[in-house]
Design a protein that fits this description.
Layout lengths: L1 H12 L3 E8 L4 E8 L5 H16 L6 E3 L2 E4 L7 H11 L4 H5 L4 E4 L2 E3 L14 E2 L5 E2 L2 E2 L1 E5 L2 E8 L5 E7 L14 E5 L4 H9 L3
Antiparallel strand pairs: 1-2, 1-4, 3-6, 4-5, 7-11, 8-9, 10-11, 11-12, 12-13
The protein binds zinc ion.
Length: 202
């Protein structure tokens, strides 16, 4: 018990480690610092961070998808002070095991979804699939084959229709071929739909 307590205290002192991460798409690459607070989270943090950065790169692009990857190379520090810091950060993780993870490569491809148009009738859209066709237990949902589902919903306030197609069987992803895993489309607001389904109901 006593040892455990000492370890926790040490971990609290050294709480972050900065790793160089290179994100690349088809045409370019950029290096950043990935900051992690625990050795277990390197891969998940790297994927999350890379997707966020790519989202920024492509924020002005048309909807579609981007095929991209990341790479982390990390060398064992040579000076004793940094080495000690690293060992403290790792706590009970053997140093060798940690270093064996590098270089670490991963996929961070993203879909570029359109901005959600503002709701003209309310602060936010209120999406419902209540009045759609499809099976009764699951209105507004269709299996389109090829590992994808289609979801339809309307906004209760303005009648805008949202169509989402998203991949559920990851083996059918064709992002590398330029087909997004997820797409979203929004129609114009439709007051007739609101009049027919929402106002009549009230
Ligand atoms: Zn709306």
């Amino acid at each position: 018990m006593k040892d455990q307590k000492v370890l926790n205290e040490t971990k609290e002192e050294t709480t972050e480690l900065s790793l160089p991460i290179r994100i690349h798409d088809d045409g370019s690459s950029e290096e950043y610092d990935l900051v992690i607070t625990s050795p277990d989270e390197i891969e998940s943090e790297a994927i999350g961070f890379s997707k966020e950065m790519l989202g920024n790169w492509y924020s002005d692009e048309k909807p579609g998808c981007v095929s991209a990857g990341f790479e982390i190379e990390f060398d064992c520090p040579e000076n004793m002070e940094e080495l000690t810091e690293l060992a403290e950060f790792l706590g009970d993780t053997p140093l060798k095991e940690f270093l064996d993870q590098f270089p670490l490569y991963g996929d961070c491809s993203i879909d570029i979804l359109p901005d959600v148009p503002d709701c003209p009738e309310a602060e936010e859209h209120d999406w419902t699939n209540e009045f759609e066709n499809g099976c009764t237990e699951n209105p507004g949902v269709w299996d389109t084959g090829n590992g994808r589902m289609k979801y339809i919903a309307h906004c209760r306030h303005c009648g805008m229709m949202r169509t989402t197609i998203s991949l559920y069987a990851s083996g059918n992803s064709n992002r590398s071929g330029g087909v997004p895993d997820e797409t979203e489309e929004y129609s114009d607001p439709n007051p007739d739909w609101v009049a027919k389904y929402i106002e009549e109901e009230e």
